[in-house]
Design goal:
The chain is an alpha/beta fold and about 550 residues long. The protein contains 17 helices and 16 strands. The longest helix has about 30 residues, at about 505-539.
């Protein structure tokens, strides 16, 4: 590869389980870590860093168990540091742990900044060079792949470029397979990264990698700037997890490498697993999904403005820089007070309902939506309520039950006494009535239990789905406790989830509206599936 050409391929080195686990609020169990490795192997990354084998019992247990996984692509890597200055390399427990881990590849870090050498390690600059070369040489004698992470390289280069480069030369002399330049403090600019990577490649005949942090919001940009100058390994984490502001988000890095720079980063078809990998890591880290993540967020290909939707329907390139399917995502059209008729028609078509373009019905539905939203309704996240609205407007919505009435009672006796909640619901299905009372953990839960109990006699499938999430939003605080509220309910079963909405000045009534829509939607879906099955049987 010439100095001015891009690499044909870049190795992806994932450090979610080590650097990413240092993120605030992120903690992985051994079982979690093993599932992460499997997901990254499906994605097709080249290296998965498992952590410090000698750090604690959990890390050692992970390296013992990960050997049993039948991995196809990923090589598990163990991480450590150069040997202690006070002992010979063979006796360092950190290195003994690295070699006993059974990891396919090893990665060690050393000091590149003279300030860190003299102040953090309190050793001479010459001794630091010995530690680097001795450690790499020793590990290379036992493993075929050894990477050297040059910690604080860019800060070290700014302080003393000659010494920073000399530390890299020590690692190269020891036989390192790649010199990974680390922007540990995350404060380097992309043009600085590019210039320093060029300098390193011009001086040292060794593969170069890049490891960037996001303290300036530039981790992905800095990683790509390094690749543009010839770096052939990128280290980072899924979803950008990491200490302080995080690491380079490998999801964005991989997508940009392949779709924007034409550089191979994953096996064929790997990009289509990006969204599922991102989502899996959010779940395993027990973190809320970031809807705004580039490429893989729920909002990445979501369109709200009517003009945008109209243009996207004609040609998606008008407002999408790549196809959502290329990264495993999908296009979404949002229904809101910014919607035009095209939003309604597109969304209905997405749900399998043909309203026709520029028909009175689509105009009528749009008018209803705008009127409802003026009172506080929001159909983003409540697509089941939107679908029910369309069916009602078309006149083909079946009324599964009628409410005869409900009552919710809270009983608290004494300031320290337990609060008891009971709901009573009376429903009418055809000519039959059913009265049911139930207790619950709060008024909404009691109401939900009573309503399901009353209806399950007629519709037993109601017991097959559950309330997954419940959100309340006060729409305006001007009226204090009498303010209008919006309740969003997410329900789910084995086949997926659906959202419904209710709005009222009474939080119990708003909750009831959303709960009824959730039940109506599930029953309507069951009817549609039954009709489809009958149609197939008749054919």
């Amino acid at each position: 590869m010439s100095d001015n050409s891009l690499p044909a391929r870049v190795d992806i080195y994932d450090t979610t389980l080590r650097d990413g686990a240092q993120s605030e609020d992120v903690s992985f169990s051994v079982a979690d870590k093993l599932r992460v490795v499997q997901q990254l192997d499906i994605l097709g990354v080249h290296y998965v860093e498992g952590g410090w084998p000698s750090a604690n019992r959990k890390e050692a247990e992970f390296f013992e168990q990960v050997r049993e996984l039948p991995l196809k692509t990923a090589q598990v890597t163990a991480f450590g540091s150069t040997h202690r200055a006070s002992m010979v390399v063979e006796d360092d427990p950190n290195l003994i742990g690295l070699l006993s881990s059974g990891a396919d590849a090893l990665c060690i870090f050393g000091k590149s900044w003279d300030f860190h050498v003299t102040h953090a390690l309190s050793i001479s600059l010459e001794r630091n060079l010995e530690l680097i070369e001795n450690t790499v040489t020793y590990l290379k004698a036992h493993r075929s792949r050894v990477f050297y992470d040059a910690e604080h390289f860019f800060d070290g280069f700014k302080a003393d470029p000659e010494y920073a480069l000399t530390t890299l030369e020590a690692a190269a002399a020891g036989g390192a397979d790649a010199l990974v330049l680390c922007d540990t403090n995350g404060g380097t600019m992309p043009w600085e990264v590019a210039e320093m990577v060029r300098t390193v490649r011009a001086r040292i005949a060794c593969d170069v990698g890049i490891h960037t942090h996001n303290d300036s919001g530039l981790a992905v940009a800095n990683a790509l700037a390094a690749v543009q100058q010839g770096a052939v390994q990128v280290q980072g984490t899924i979803n950008g997890y990491g200490e302080r502001c995080g690491n380079a988000n490998l999801i964005s890095v991989m997508a940009n490498l392949e779709l924007k720079m034409g550089i191979k980063a994953l096996p064929e078809g790997g990009l289509t697993h990006l969204k599922e990998t991102s989502a899996s890591l959010f779940e395993l880290a027990n973190m809320p999904h970031n809807k705004q993540l580039p490429y893989v967020g729920e909002s990445a290909f979501a369109h709200k403005g009517g003009i945008h939707v109209s243009a996207v329907e004609k040609d998606a390139r008008t407002y999408e820089h790549v196809t959502p399917e290329s990264v495993g995502n999908r296009r979404r059209v949002l229904i809101s007070d910014y919607s035009g008729r095209s939003n309604v028609v597109y969304k209905a078509k997405e749900l399998g309902l043909d309203l026709g373009d520029k028909t009175p019905m689509s105009a009528n539905i749009l008018a209803q939506i705008k009127e409802l939203e003026a009172t506080g309704y929001q159909f983003e996240g409540a697509e089941a309520s939107f679908e029910l609205l369309i069916h009602k407007a078309q006149g083909n919505h079946k009324r599964y039950f009628e409410l005869a009435g409900f009552r919710v009672v809270l009983d608290k006796r004494g300031s320290d006494g337990e609060t008891l909640t009971e709901a009573t619901v009376k429903v009418r299905v055809g000519e039959q009535e059913q009265l049911m009372a139930a207790e619950g953990d709060g008024p909404v839960n009691a109401l939900d239990v009573a309503l399901r109990s009353a209806l399950s006699r007629f519709y037993p499938q109601i017991n097959e789905f559950r309330l997954v999430d419940y959100k309340v939003r006060v729409l305006t605080g001007r009226n204090g406790t009498a303010s209008r509220v919006r309740v969003l309910v997410e329900s789910g079963d084995n086949s997926g989830s659906w959202g419904t909405v209710g709005v009222s000045t009474n939080i119990i009534e708003a909750s009831y509206m959303a709960l009824v829509d959730a039940i109506d939607y599930r029953l309507m879906r069951d009817d549609a599936e039954e009709r489809a099955a009958q149609g197939r049987a008749e054919q």
